[in-house]
Write a structure and sequence with these properties.
about 100 residues; alpha+beta; GMP Synthetase, Chain A, domain 3; three-stranded mixed sheet; 4 helices
Length: about 100
């Protein structure tokens, strides 16, 4: 194997990934956000049959809800649900929950 001259120092992979995520307009916490969406069924319990995580708007997880009654129920349980999500995915990933009626 031939030895090559390196004129530049090696770039750490973490730095490369950070730049790539930025260029792709992805958040560094994309994996944690995905984990939060997958954890909704566990966190919400029976309410997950009437709701589902739709998307993130900044650090706010938007949850789509089947009807007004469940929207009200989940709104009343917001603090509890945020606490459970924080335990599942860590602090700082989700700062708030927003509930919206499902669009047909």
């Amino acid at each position: 194997m031939a030895k090559t001259d390196r004129k530049r120092p090696l770039t750490p992979i973490g730095s490369i990934l950070k730049t790539l995520l930025s260029k792709l307009d992805l958040h560094e916490d994309t994996a944690e956000r995905g984990k939060a969406m997958l954890a909704w069924e566990i966190v919400a319990g029976d309410a997950s049959k009437h709701s589902e995580p739709a998307h993130f708007r900044g650090s706010v997880l938007v949850v789509s809800v089947s009807n007004h009654a469940w929207l009200h129920e989940l709104s009343m349980r917001k603090s509890e649900l945020l606490g459970k999500l924080e335990r599942e995915v860590g602090t700082g990933i989700i700062k708030d929950l927003r509930f919206e009626l499902k669009r047909d």
